[in-house]
């Protein structure tokens, strides 16, 4: 492999430094092709034993948004209805059934079979990681994001994941943000407040 160079400042700005959580959206469609590309990028991020438990449900149609609306907190309802797409980021508690395909060089499925706490812990942790990769992939493709909690997980699971072993983790509105809806950026902790080198 060749030596990798640090990303240019413009790329760091788009991914992190100037990127913001959006609450207001332009009336501009996000195509299905862009959503497929987003997943193709996000799925390449690392997970333990390549377990890949995240499941992404893109709520895009008006009909699907109306199904989601009753489970949103009052502060999240209007902006989610306005967003071109709301992604339900979930995690599959039967992820380990895919391990013979995803991690074929050993019997990784046996690491999880019948071990409920390990299944839950692994699915939630790695599904959360994949949700973060999805946000970065969306930003890399020129989209803006509005990740959020503030919803009825049990209600969303019943409405959208009934009959499956997938559970909702968090939601993320995606589209092309309207900067007039941005609040001032919140402060961040200094290095010494959040990190050590030992």
From TrEMBL:
CDD domains, per the entry: RutE-like
- Kindly state which keywords UniProt assigns to this record, in alphabetical order: Flavoprotein, FMN, NAD, NADP, Oxidoreductase
Q: What is its EC number?
A: 1.-.-.-
The protein's enzyme class: oxidoreductase
Q: Which cofactor does it need?
A: FMN
Q: Does the keyword field hold Transmembrane?
A: no
Which Pfam family is an annotated match for this chain, by its short name?
Nitroreductase
In the UniProt record, does the keyword Ion transport occur? no
The record places domain Nitroreductase at 20-160
Can you tell me which family this protein belongs to?
Belongs to the nitroreductase family. HadB/RutE subfamily.
NCBIfam families on file: PRK05365.1
Listed name of the protein: Putative NADH dehydrogenase/NAD(P)H nitroreductase SAMN04488061_0133
The species is Filomicrobium insigne
Taxonomy of origin reads:
Bacteria, Pseudomonadati, Pseudomonadota, Alphaproteobacteria, Hyphomicrobiales
């Amino acid at each position: 492999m060749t030596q990798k160079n640090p990303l240019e400042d413009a790329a760091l700005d788009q991914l992190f430094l100037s990127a913001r959580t959006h609450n207001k959206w332009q009336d501009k469609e996000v195509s299905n092709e862009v959503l497929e590309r987003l997943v193709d990028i996000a799925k390449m991020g690392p997970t333990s034993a390549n377990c890949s438990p995240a499941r992404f449900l893109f709520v895009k149609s008006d009909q699907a948004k109306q199904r989601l609306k009753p489970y949103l907190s009052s502060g999240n309802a209007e902006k989610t209805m306005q967003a071109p797409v709301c992604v339900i980021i979930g995690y599959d508690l039967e992820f380990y059934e895919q391990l013979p395909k995803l991690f074929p060089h050993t019997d990784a499925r046996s690491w999880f079979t019948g071990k409920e706490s390990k299944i839950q812990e692994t699915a939630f942790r790695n599904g959360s990681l994949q949700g973060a990769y999805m946000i970065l992939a969306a930003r890399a493709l020129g989209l803006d994001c509005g990740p959020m909690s503030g919803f009825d997980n049990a209600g969303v699971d019943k409405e959208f994941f009934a009959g499956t072993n997938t559970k909702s983790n968090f939601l993320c509105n995606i589209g092309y943000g309207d900067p007039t809806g941005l609040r001032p950026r919140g402060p961040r902790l200094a290095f010494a407040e959040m990190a050590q080198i030992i």
